[in-house]
Amino acid sequence: MAAALFFVIVVVSVYTARIPSFILVLYMGVSLLTFIVYAVDKSAARRGAWRTRERTLHLLSLAGGWPGALVAQQTLRHKSRKRKFRVVFRVTVLLNCGGFAWLFTPNGAAMLQSLIDRVIGG
Fold first, then answer.
1. Cα(69)–Cα(2) distance, rounded to whole angstroms?
2. What is the C-alpha R_g of the chain?
3. Where are the domains of the chain?
4. 22 with 103: CB under 8 angstroms?
5. What is the pLDDT along the chain (122 residues), one digit of tens a residue?
6. Which of 50, 76, 88, 102 has the fewest Cβ atoms within 10 angstroms?
7. What is the 8-class DSSP label of residue 50?
8. How far is CA 116 from the centre of its chain?
């Protein structure tokens, strides 16, 4: 539910031209990648094979993949019991959401525009 609500907020923000559409594409792509990494890790855990580092899972969440991680935790029942992991995961969600909200401030919007200009301008 939280992941869906967040995506609605991002879609509305793009639709109202408050943020560029690539932000939505970024969140969707990183969320999909994160879900896949969780699924692979769950499969590896069942087989006793090499596992994905928790640090990697947290970095993906921090980078915008937390909606995919949240869905994976609920649907795959993976990484949903370990208290320390959940606490760090929640911190990554808060930091990412704070960064997203910062894009709506004058400084955040200016920095994002500057980054876009550098990438497009070359």
1. 11
2. 16
3. 2-121
4. no
5. 889 999 999 999 999 988 999 999 999 999 999 999 999 999 999 999 999 999 999 999 999 999 999 999 999 988 878 899 999 999 999 999 999 999 999 999 999 999 989 988 76
6. 50
7. -
8. 20
